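testing teh design pipeline on a random one, pls ignore if ur not involved
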């Protein structure tokens, strides 16, 4: 499903983002990426959907190399990947519904929904996604009225509304308190188990990775420290 072959990313011709990374992630996996700040976690995730471009190596999605795709083809590939950010990345002044529809329709969706231009099928998908994260009673609430945990649930619904095969999450719980972080992790777990969506999640907190992820990839200074099933990593940490 996701394959990186000998991938190196270098910023500004000097700073190593990731170096010589080889890995393969199969459909339905729930993978945690760990490592200290600056280790390359964020760069790794951004490489999977080519938000950053490798200087060396190849990126494959569903068996197809995407490293050198033109922007139009890349957009199609990205549509099958949901991205969840640390800072939620919502339009604060838009409703929960509009934010979720944006995952599907792009940034026209406020305009489209204002004029009821979205299809019933889009609305149904948005509602289903919001039900999945328990926010179906908040659809007309503005995003800026929500707590951090609720905002992240909207962001997850927004990703789900794209009907993705893969969800990439970049430190999605780092801005939340521990209890709220666990709630968010449980939603990822449920989505992975129920919908078989492949999830790759960057986590600062190793214990959360050990508790929820099936496989853990550790990075240090842009390089692979280890890549193991969760049950096999305890002695390394
Ligand atoms: P992590 O997500 O584990 O904190 P990052 O992937 O953000 O690690 O960073 C890996 C390395 O790449 C760090 O040295 C960081 O400073 C550098 N880096 C990340 N993004 C950029 C950028 N846009 N420009 C220059 N250097 C960057
Ligand atoms: P993340 O939380 O995703 O690891 P960071 O806090 O490392 O992000 O960086 C925030 C933003 O600054 C990102 O867009 C990242 O690409 C960029 N960035 C990170 N390190 C550097 C750097 N050394 N020089 C320039 N930009 C950087």
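output:
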């Amino acid at each position: 499903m996701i394959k990186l072959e000998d991938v190196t990313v270098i910023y500004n011709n000097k700073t190593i983002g990731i170096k010589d990374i080889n890995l393969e992630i199969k459909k339905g996996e729930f993978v945690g990426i760990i490592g200290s700040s600056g280790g390359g976690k964020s760069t790794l995730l951004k490489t999977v959907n080519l938000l950053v471009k490798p200087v060396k190596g190849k990126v494959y999605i569903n068996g197809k190399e995407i490293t050198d795709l033109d922007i139009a083809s890349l957009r199609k590939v990205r549509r099958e990947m949901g991205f969840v950010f640390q800072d939620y990345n919502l339009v604060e002044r838009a409703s929960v519904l509009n934010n979720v529809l944006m995952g599907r329709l792009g940034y026209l969706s406020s305009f489209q929904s204002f004029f009821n231009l979205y299809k019933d099928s889009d609305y149904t998908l948005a509602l289903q996604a919001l039900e999945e994260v328990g926010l179906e009673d908040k659809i007309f609430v503005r995003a800026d009225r929500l707590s951090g945990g609720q905002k992240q649930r909207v962001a997850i619904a927004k990703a789900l509304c794209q009907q993705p095969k893969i969800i990439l999450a970049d430190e999605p719980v780092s801005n939340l308190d521990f209890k709220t972080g666990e709630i968010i992790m449980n939603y990822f777990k449920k989505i992975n188990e129920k919908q078989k969506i492949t999830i790759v999640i960057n986590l600062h907190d190793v214990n959360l990775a050990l508790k929820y992820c099936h496989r853990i990839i550790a990075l240090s200074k842009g390089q692979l420290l280890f890549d193991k099933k969760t049950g096999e990593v305890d002695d390394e940490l």
